Amino acid sequence: MALKHLVLSPATKGTLDAASVESIVTALTPVISKNDAQLLGPGLLVLARLTPEQPRIVATPDLIAALCELLRSNVAGSVLDSLLVLVTSIGQAGQGLPLMRGLLKDVGVSGEPAIVGKVIGTLLVASGNSAGVTMDSFVKEIQANSGDQARVSLALAVLGEAGLRLGPKFPLPPTLFLEQFSNEFDNVSLSAAVALGRAGAGNVSVYVPVILQSMRKTGNTQYLLLQSIKEVLQQAAVSLSDIGEFSTMIWDQILAATDAEDNKAVCAECIGRMVIIDPKTYMQKLQVGLLIIPVASLVKC
What we know:
mainly alpha
């Protein structure tokens, strides 16, 4: 923590020489390899701060190997957030190519597709044209490996993350993800639903109307689209302006979907997130709903 505060201090920016940075990287690389939960978060942030100043010294083959090893295990929460900050710094510093090669060759489907996809998608966007692969590469991966659920799920996660980060600049349509839905709740369908939601959170005006229109269908498709809406709401949880004019339509569609038993749990999550986004409006609606439900039950009895 002392090292993190020292490196993040504006007073030290640009003052550490190459030898000092090299010694810090050497000391922190084993922390990553050992997946030390207590030290990982601060260590990754230290490296992220040093990367713009000394990118070649930080993004060494040993560090890349350690990051790949880390991603073959479970990474979540604040550690994942810190890892994404580091990956962004590496990409923006022009060192994304060797890391991308490592992620695709040494990690790939051996890690959790949702997590690895977030990392690769983040690196893809941060690196611009220097990552060695393009979004089209992952689209082709989906088309060429229709029978390989792990590979398709990973490619979908990558594109969903890219869509979230590129926002309106994301060139791919919602149909790319919708076409991966099936009648079974398999890994590909769920990955496509989450990816659709993440891309939709980056480009609400294009994606959310398509999602809401498609939600009029019942059954498995509606359930999957509720997962997409949940992801949109998760990304928009800090501001009503993120979903803007669509908030009322989203609320109405969620309530309509509660008629199906399989939808109730995810609908409850979506309702809770709507209340968090705009408590002034939706807490009142929720309270009215709680009053109506017992009365309806009595009438039915």
